[in-house]
Amino acid sequence: IVLTGSDDHLWKTWGFPDGNILQTGEGHTDWLSGCCFRPSGTQLVTSSGDTTVRLWDLSRRGCILTLRGHSRAVRGCSWHSCGDFVASASADGTSKIWDVNSERCRYTLRGHEDSVNSIEFLPFSSTVVTSSADKTLSLWDVR
């Protein structure tokens, strides 16, 4: 299965190698900048120009949680390997670590001087790496 997000505000899962559309998700009101599967494979997260991060349940075929807190477009998202946390990077110059169980922002990471364009958890760790339009990379310990 391949997962894609697009300027048409939709995410899609595709069968591979046939290329048939398996599922489509709608709910964002602007372009999608990122999407990835939860490590368990039963859910996914998307980020969007509409300033939100959304969690989707594949079996329910719908959005189960909308995370709000960024003031500008969200440029990327990532799951922690344990599946309990989502990270988001925004054009507002911040990144956020979201606890999906409590449905709240656990941390807001500040320090970049421009848009944060990508974010990834390092595998099996509490370290996050961000990249920014300010031409820097930052490593964050989010314990």
UniProtKB/TrEMBL annotation:
- Keywords, sorted A to Z: Repeat, WD repeat
Swiss-Prot/TrEMBL GO biological process terms? axoneme assembly
Q: Which positions does the entry assign to WD repeats? A: 25-66, 67-108, 109-143
Give one Pfam hit by family name: WD40
Segments passing through the bilayer? none
SMART domains given in the database record: WD40
Name this polypeptide is given: SPG16 protein
